[in-house]
Amino acid sequence: MRPTxxxxxxxxxxxxxxxxxxEPITTTIVAGAGAAAAAAAGRKIYNYxxxxxxxxxxxxxxxxxxxDLNRKLFGQHIVSRVVLKAITGFMKNxxxxxxxxxSLHGGTGTGKNFVSQLIAKNLYKKGxxxxxxxxxxxTAHFPHQSQIENYKSQLQHWIKGNxxxxxxxxxxxxxxxxxxxxxxxxxxxxxxxxxxxxxVSYRQAIFIFLSNSGGExxxxxxxxxxxxxxxxxxxxxxxxxxxLSLSVFNNKNxxxxxxxxxxxxxxxxxxxxxxxEYKHLVQCGMxxxxxxxxxxxxxxxxxxxxxxxxxxxxxxxxxxxxxxxxSSKLDFYREHA
Length: 337
Ligand SMILES: Nc1ncnc2c1ncn2[C@@H]1O[C@H](COP(=O)(O)OP(=O)(O)OP(=O)(O)O)[C@@H](O)[C@H]1O
Ligand SMILES: *[C@@H]1O[C@H](CO)[C@@H](O)[C@H](O)[C@H]1NC(C)=O
Ligand SMILES: *[C@@H]1O[C@H](CO)[C@@H](O)[C@H](O)[C@H]1NC(C)=O
Ligand SMILES: *[C@@H]1O[C@H](CO)[C@@H](O)[C@H](O)[C@H]1NC(C)=O
Ligand SMILES: [Mg+2]
Known about the structure:
Organism: Esox lucius
Strand order of the largest sheet: 2-3-4-1-5
Pfam family, one: TOR1A_C
CATH topology of the largest domain: Rossmann fold
CATH architecture of the largest domain: 3-Layer(aba) Sandwich
Distance between the termini: 21 Å
Bound molecules: adenosine-5'-triphosphate, 2-acetamido-2-deoxy-beta-D-glucopyranose, magnesium ion
Subcellular location: Endoplasmic reticulum lumen
Number of helices: 15
Low-confidence stretches: 1-32
Number of strands: 7
Strand content: 5-15%
CATH class of the largest domain: Alpha Beta
GO molecular function: ATP binding; ATP hydrolysis activity; kinesin binding
Radius of gyration: 21 Å
Keywords: ATP-binding, Endoplasmic reticulum, Glycoprotein, Nucleotide-binding, Signal
Mean pLDDT: 85
Largest sheet: 5 strands, parallel
C-alpha cells in the first residue's frame, strides 16, 4: 500500500475534479467521506466512460457465485443456499415480473456486506467498482431528518437515472434500521410489479437491504440449538422465519418494516445471518492473511481470535463483533509480536 500513496493522491485530485464537473450533488459527500470514497467515486466516473451495459461487462457466473459462497463465506449455510437460489433463479428468468428484492438480517460482522460484494463480483466484470453497483448508507447519505424531502427526490432521481442507463443495476441499502421510514416509502413503487413506470422498466434490477434487525431473534434460535446439543447446520430457514418476521414487524426502529413493503410482499427473500463462533473467526483470520498475501499463521490467528469477545457471558459461544475487526487486529498483533 505505502509505495502507491503518491499515485493514489494524484488520482483523488483528478477524480474530484471529474466529480465536480459531472455530479455537483455528490461533491460534498465525496469531500466529506475521505480518500477511499473519493477513489471509489473516481473509479466509477472512469468506468462510466468505458464500461457498457452489455454482456461484455455484465455476465452472471453462477458457478463462480456458488464457489464463492461455499469457500469464502463461513458459518452461513442458510445464507449460501438462499442467496444462490434467489440470484440464480432471477438471472435465469428472461422476463422477471418484478425486480429482485432481498433483505439480509443479522448481527454485526456476520457477512452481510461481504455477501453483497460476492454477488456483485460474480455479476459485473468490475465487481463492486462497476458503475452499475450502487450502495447507499443511511447514516452517511441521508443523515438529516430535516432534509428528508430532498433525499426522497434525490433517491428517486438516482434510481430512475441509473436504471435508465442500465436495467441490470444493483442497489444496496445499508443500515436499513437507521433509515427514516418515509425514505424507503419513496422507492417502493420501483420494487413492485409494474411493467413500466414513466417509460422505465425496473424489473431487471436487484435491490438488497441490509440491517441488524432480527439479529437477536436469530441468536436465540442458534442458542437453543446449541443448548439442545444440535448441530448448527441442522438449523433450517423455517426455524428462523417466524422469529425474523415477528421481530421485524415489531421493531419500532427498523424504518422500512413499518411500510407496506412486507404487507405487499415486495421482499422476495429474507436472509438470516447466524452469529459466528470461534472456529468461523479462525477461518476468517486465515482467509484474511491469505488475502493480504501473507502465509497464514494459525498460532497468530488463534491468538487474535481468542482475544475477541464472546457471548452469552456464561457460555461464550458467539462472537460479539462477528469477523469484524479481525483484519485490523491481525495487523496489530503482527506488529507487536
Ligand atoms: N460469514 C463470514 N464469512 C467470511 N468472512 C466474513 C464473514 N462475516 C464477516 N466476514 C469478514 O468480516 C468483514 C466484515 O463483515 P461485513 O462487513 O460483511 O459485516 P456486516 O454483516 O455487514 O456487519 P454490520 O452489520 O456491522 O454492517 C467482511 O469484509 C469479511 O471479510
Ligand atoms: C466462473 O467462475 C468459475 C469459478 O470461480 C471460474 O472457474 C470460471 O472461469 C468463471 N467463468 C467466467 C466466464 O468468468
Ligand atoms: C446513479 O446513482 C449514483 C449514486 O450511487 C448517483 O450519484 C448518480 O447521479 C446516479 N446516476 C444517474 C444517471 O442518476
Ligand atoms: C506465527 O505467529 C507467532 C505468534 O505471533 C510467531 O511467534 C511465529 O513466529 C509465527 N510463525 C511464522 C512462521 O511466522
Ligand atoms: Mg455491514
